[in-house]
Write a structure and sequence with these properties.
This protein is mainly β. It is built from no helices and 10 strands. The chain is 0% helix and 42% strand. Strands 2-10-9-4-5-6 form a 6-stranded mixed beta sheet, with no helix packed on it.
């Protein structure tokens, strides 16, 4: 089970670090990703980290503004987001897998991020 937290309302230009905590199995067994979904839009992959955490990949749309990190010992996954923009408003989900978009990938319930002044 994946449970996200840390979403809130933040001002444009601000920073946020949603957290994902896993239970029931070790995230160290999986590639992990963050995806987001806005109302009326399909899910959008943001970033992926390999099982060890040594390799990371970011979507070009958010490159330079996000950093995915993981702590396999604590079974946690974090997405540090900086310079947030109104278009970053979405529900953010952690997921197993390299994109979070495969049928076999498992999502958490999500945490809502709103960027507004």
């Amino acid at each position: 089970q994946l449970v996200e937290s840390g979403g809130c309302v933040v001002q444009p230009g601000g920073s946020l670090a949603p957290l994902c905590v896993a239970s029931g199995s070790s995230i160290g067994s999986y590639d992990m990703s963050w995806v987001r979904q806005s109302p009326g839009k399909g899910p959008e992959w943001l970033a992926h980290t390999s099982r060890s955490g040594h390799s990371k990949y970011d979507n070009d749309l958010v490159k330079g503004r996000i950093n995915i990190s993981r702590n396999n010992t604590k079974n946690k996954l974090t997405l540090l987001m900086t310079n947030l923009k109104p278009e970053d408003k979405a529900e953010y989900h952690c997921s197993t897998g390299r994109t979070g978009l495969a049928n076999s990938d498992v999502w958490g319930q999500g945490t809502q991020v709103t960027v507004s002044s």
